[in-house]
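Annotators were shown the component list below and the corresponding predicted structure, then asked to write short factual statements about the assembly.
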Amino acid sequence: MVVAIYATIVVQIELSVTRSADPVAVTGITKELDMTLVAAAADGLEGLDGMAEFLDRRSDDLTQMLVEHLAVVAVSVAVATVVGVALGLLVWDRPVGRSVTITTAAVILTIPSLALLAILSPLFGLGWGPSIVALVLYSLLPIVRNTVVGLREVPAPVLESARGMGMTRTGVLLRIQLPMAWPIILTGIRVATQLAIGIAAIGAYVAGPGLGQYIFRGLSSLGSRNALNYALSGTVGVVALALAADALFIVIARLTTPRGLRA
Amino acid sequence: MPKPTTIIFPSMDVRGAASGGSATSGGGVSIELDSVTKTYPGQDVSAVEDFSMRIEPGELVMFVGPSGCGKTTTMKMVNRIIEPTSGSIRIDGQDVLSLSPDQLRRHIGYVIQQIGLFPHMTIADNIATVPRLLGWSKKETSARVEELLDTVQLDPAVFADRYPRQLSGGQQQRAGVARALAADPPVMLMDEPFGATDPITREKLQAEFLRLQADIGKTIIFVTHDFDEAVRLGDRIAVLSERSQIEQFDTPAAILAAPANDYVASFIGSGAALKRLSLMPVTSADLSFGAPASGGKRPQLDPTATLRDALDLLVVTGAEALEIVDADGTRLGCLTHAAISAALTQSSPTRGAGPAAGEGVHR
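Structure shown to annotators:
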């Protein structure tokens, strides 16, 4: 296990060095992380010598952060799913409401996460509050958008025959359109989850939960012996979590897609 | 036993109170359209203008006309998929505009060309849609689903739990018809239901549909642009031109024998006599031609065949006459070219004795 993590870390360093050479590919959170790593990497790889011992000593700590990270993402995406799908159901058939909603969600996503957290913390204090609010806001776009697209993609003859049999508008929406749109909505939730796992790391800036704490600790102690260990274990944890979540979504999609819709 | 839960059309009261129907129960109710007009906002010309028609209970009326003539619009006003601008529509004497559209539609079968089966539901669930809306019990519903699958010749054991995408086009269309029949509606609206199927499947579906209608006797409005389909299926045909104007409304035989005007004639196309022959059973011709001279051998034909089949056989074999022999081998008579011609001329001067033959021509 330790060896595997160690190998991943080495690969990660190489990746981050190459990626930082390409400024276009470096954005948002990864930019901040990469800078830490590059700086640390520049110090030499001797910092990695203590990695195994570092991980060993902090495994409880890491596990807790991993769980917290997962929890904050799960809660946020769950709330965003409820809100996003509800918004989608409300606006899918209203051209003005639809574009206002989607544009608003898109604008929110362009706000840098550090800036948003800075704005939110006076309102929601420190810790979980601002993290969750920020993550919900960021998660809305993919979910609302995919809900709207999914509901609108139901073929006209299906809608016509449903209405022609005397189903109410709400009945058609909930019993025909929503189930048919579900695979597309689920894709939106999956994208939102990936997004939220990445952005959640920044939540540590306002004392939020999760692996971001190690990343920021690494950042703030640049040059110290464990700086790279902190940053790397946090980063790798985030990546691993993202991969695991993605795998989970493949399973969820498999289990929840109506059989008649599976390709 | 399924039953209408909500009484919508007056005569359903009687039928509903009876011990309940089956797939073969029912019978239809009348449909009257009175000066129905549809004008879309922002358009000078009406899509449907001053359309009046009375359709008798249990009648299968075909709306035939070119694309864009308003035939589909006219039909869709009956179940208020499209709301008329003016005029009134009564089903069994009940003004459809006085009913809630959703309630109304649960008592009108609706089949469209693209079928519109719900892809995420099994065939059984698709068919159960309206019974569930009407609040039938689970037992009633599943019994009805099974019965209907049998009716449209889809084996329930095989097809009930399949999904629409696992069915061929023809099978999907049958499931669509079963779904429309689910709550035993007295009225069916069918919008080119067989239009998207290949010719062989279409012919099969048409034959099955005719057999089914003979059993269930629904009042049906059936829209098509295929005149041959109209001749084959319809009790009466309404030939429609632009703005859904009725050029002629009569039985297929009467329209073929005496098209009201050039428009109708052009719609019939060539071979009107042959099309008429295809509507006449061989038994409608004079079969008294003499028996063959001893030793002479003539081609044989079943009495259920049409005169068109007979003519076809005469032409192909080059025989002077055909023997009409039924399944038991009993000889019913003999048919010649001359007898076929005579049958045709005999039937042509009389207009069809359809229920409203007199009001056939509208302009």
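Statements collected:
1. Residues 136 and 169 of chain B are 29 Å apart (CA to CA).
2. Residues 10-258 of chain B form a domain with the Rossmann fold fold (CATH 3.40.50.300).
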